[in-house]
């Protein structure tokens, strides 16, 4: 009987140490390798590796599912307010919906412009007060999406990518780096619970 109680106590201790608390369970970070940027003509769907491209090379991402908002951040090897359209894309999946948050910045509007859409209706913006910040010194792009705009979900999953465009014609160039893979596959994070 004493052995059973000791084993149960040991098991309870291990579980208490290994299971994340509520404060830890709502955050997730991922480190992305460098040199995994791809390039293509802006109108193409067949990208090729561009391992020497540093601007827009995602090196990490963070998701924080807070009480009132979902905070999403991309960290870059290099980020510049140049003539390119530097685009930070966050695709949010919840139990009941998907939303795309796009933050675009360049030399003309270095602070960026943000909008939320449905994946099926990318030209129609959804009204939502999304806070955003592009920090060229820290090389980060951050959006703060109110949970009310997402239906106050129990969990979120997020696919993230950094994209740059010189323009939108067939002679222009696009670069892309998926934040969660070594390619352009659009992989989602695990579920981040609130």
From TrEMBL:
<protein>
    <recommendedName>
        <fullName>Tat pathway signal sequence domain protein</fullName>
    </recommendedName>
</protein>
<feature type="signal peptide">
    <location>
        <begin position="1"/>
        <end position="25"/>
    </location>
</feature>
<keyword id="KW-0732">Signal</keyword>
């Amino acid at each position: 009987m004493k052995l059973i109680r000791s084993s149960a106590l040991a098991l309870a201790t291990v579980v208490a140490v290994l299971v994340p608390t509520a404060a830890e369970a709502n955050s997730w970070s991922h480190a992305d390798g460098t040199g995994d940027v791809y390039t293509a003509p802006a109108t193409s769907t067949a990208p090729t590796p561009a391992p020497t491209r540093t601007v827009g090379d995602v090196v990490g991402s963070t998701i924080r599912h807070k009480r009132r908002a979902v905070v999403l951040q991309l960290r870059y090897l290099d980020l510049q307010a140049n003539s390119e359209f530097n685009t930070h894309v966050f695709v949010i999946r919840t139990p009941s919906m998907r939303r795309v948050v796009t933050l675009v910045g360049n030399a003309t509007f270095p602070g960026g412009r943000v909008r939320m859409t449905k994946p099926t209706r990318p030209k129609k913006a959804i009204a939502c007060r999304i806070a955003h910040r592009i920090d060229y010194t820290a090389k980060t792009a951050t959006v703060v999406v109110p949970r009310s705009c997402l239906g106050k979900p129990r969990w979120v999953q997020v696919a993230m990518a950094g994209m740059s465009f010189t323009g939108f014609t067939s002679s222009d160039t696009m670069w892309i780096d998926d934040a969660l893979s070594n390619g352009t596959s659009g992989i989602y994070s695990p579920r981040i619970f609130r």
